[in-house]
Here is the input.
Amino acid sequence: MKSEKAVQVIIGGEAGQGLATVGRLLSLILVRLGYRIVVTQSYMSRIRGGHNTFAIRVSPGEIAAPVEPIDVLVALTPETVDLHRGDLTEDGLIVGDASFVEKRKGCAAVPFGEIAREQHVNTAAVGLLCSVLGIGLDMAEALVDETFKKKNEQVIEENLAALRGGYEWAEQREEIHRPLPAPRRREKRLMMSGNEAIALGALSAGVRLCAFYPMTPSTSIPLTLISAAGEAGVVVEQAEDEIAAINMAIGASYAGAPAMVATSGGGFALMIEGVSLAAMTETPVVVVVAQRPGPATGLPTRTEQADLEMVLYAGHGEFPRAIFAPGDVEECFYLARQAFETAEHYQGPVFVLTDQFLADSARAVKPFPVEELEQVRPGADPDSVKTPYRRYEITGDGISPRLLPGASDHLVVAGSDEHTEDGHLTEDLGARLRLADKRLRKGLGLSRETIAPSYAGDAEPEVLLVCWGSVKGAALEAAGRLRDSGTAAAVLHFSQVWPLDPGRFLDRLRGPARVIAVEGNATGQLARLIHRESGFEIPERIHRYDGLPITPGYILRSMEG
Amino acid sequence: MATIEEFGEYETAWCPGCGNFALLEGLKQGLAASGRRPRDLLFVSGIGQAAKAPHYLNANVFNGLHGRALPAATGAKLADPRLTVIVESGDGCCYGEGGNHFLAAIRRNVDLTMIVHDNMIYGLTKGQASPTSQRGHVTKAQPGGAAAERFDPVSAAIALGAGFVARAFVGDTEHLAQMVAEAIAYRGFSLVDVFQPCVSFNRVNTFAWYKKRCYRLPAEYDPSDREAALRRAGEWGDRIPIGVLCRADRPVFEDSIPALSAGPLAGREVDRKKLSQFQRRFG
Ligand SMILES: Cc1ncc(C[n+]2csc(CCOP(=O)(O)OP(=O)(O)O)c2C)c(N)n1
Ligand code: SF4
Ligand SMILES: [Mg+2]
Here is the structure.
């Protein structure tokens, strides 16, 4: 992955100043023009004040990693300049109001007060950036038109005026131009974040009920579903707590509605008894856990990968599960779909483990072929089962015929106590063994079907970076830079972290001189799991747990020690 | 229309003489009177002696976690509103462990019926105080007597605006059956709190204790007057009223959810064209 041509624009300011609006508008303009983007949103846990940034890394070619260096720093407050000056590249530009930005080389001191009315300053900034980046104003004008279409003509005119004001001011000042290379090819792309893609994947799989209790960084999943709810026929219910949320989802799924919950660490902790219930009653449920740094409330708006072990061991008793860990926005979509399919087929809890960075990271994605993709169809055909119907009939693969209540004369009895094949509670210890073995046998199928880690890079690398989830892009770019500097390098990325099948990756680990686990946590949870499952102890580790996403630079600096 | 026999006879794990037997009998009579067939019914229960009841009759059953029957029932009802969904569990399960869900269920007003086996004690865990135990009730876990005030479920439900609140006593099965049938017929959240003596662990609130106090609400009682209902529900001591204490029409949750207007969620097809349109909004 080449990065020379990528440019990073960072908009910084206080919460409530509308920096995300500027960021989103500019991102969408860039995506429509055919650029690739990686958005990193970094914000503090407050609604007003504090200091937040919206970083857009943009390139004509494929990019997938967040980076630190800043080419264009748009400061909505003086504090932005103080905080981020150090990250500016040699040719970096500071853009800000003339009241606090000096008039000197490398600075654009903008008299925003003269260009636009106060409420349109953000729009003026977008216009200005269009000039700085050399992308013209047509797309911006079209978007402003669309965005304010629902409001009146006057609002559109005022915003267009501000947009042009900013653009023209910058056009006259060649010294602040940092033009982007032209995009290679204009093919249709959409701007989508990880959480939006999870929601879209769930819709495409046929989700019918999502129960949630608000918790950053998971909330944008139900919010995206709500924005589609009417037309998509989905019930999205804000439950009284996370315990209610998961039990509601399980109840809905038992009655035939594909169901999900989305939460983060603390909320997931409350759901854990429900995970065990889904396993015991053999009810499909998709659980999305969007990680943020813990313990306890931790850093609510930052990112981390420290809940792998929690999700892996969540729930009392022993039962099979699958845990997916998407590495990019495309994987968010496809693995969300996969989670519903796996949950339905194996009748139990299936997890999607993401994190704040990926949840909020907008990218330019190809439209997903939603018109061609199949949905999940819950339940078996009532005519296909033996009479008397037994919900938990013992079978070779452990999968019993799941009927839906009310769909036929067969009564569907599901139990949280140990039960006999017909679902009724029992304390017959022989039945206990038979049913426990039946449930566990489903784990064999899950293992057989597990997604092998993806491998990218040199066939015989000196350096192998091992990672999971959202670190994928940073690892790929770090490996690319290593190759550029003459070191053979590759990446082994796990998009499914449970079950692991060592047969599918052990050989990859054995060859390279340096095998390095790169994880967004302090203790190396995947490395520990790989060791336990395969016997291979990854000798080198790179960890990050300061709340920020892992970048290629972070990996390379850590490798140098 | 189903007969009582269709709901079956099962061997139970209850103590001889337990009030649960009469409750089950009254319940089956009420089900038969309601006109529902076993296949139309979904019982959702939690954990406790009471929560085993659905295993002793013919119906669909989701026997979930202690305290969590209501949210599971809510999910199931939203998934398939054709099901008659009945939550059945103990006082500890419904008002203690599941207290927050009780509040939320009343506020939401999904069309569910909640039948509580109220023995004013934790039976399955061998006799600790429950939220409905009276202040001063001595148990092994509360040797100095329960220090907290008794939770009064019917008053709480009325105060919260519940649309159907009834109390029954297993010593009057005919009346119990009537309460069950009326609760099922009511569209919205309905509560039937049933006094059910626990012969093993509650030596205070015995069959005789209830028998002496319970009286049927008089025919002229008007359950639509919520303030009067609150006063009546608060009667406790020598005389305790049973019957429909409060009844009112309220907006039903399901009616305000656009996604439910097209019928059950279960079995619905993804409208791929619409989904494709939705996806375009990201462009
Ligand atoms: C999460 C959880 N906590 C505690 C228990 C143990 N437990 C089972 S039943 C019960 C109380 C039962 O009381 P109640 O709901 O009144 O039912 P009863 O047995 O009196 O009919 C308790 C505490 C449990 N099963 N799950
Ligand atoms: S413990 Fe009490 S409530 Fe439970 S079965 Fe025995 S008598 Fe009935
Ligand atoms: Mg009890």
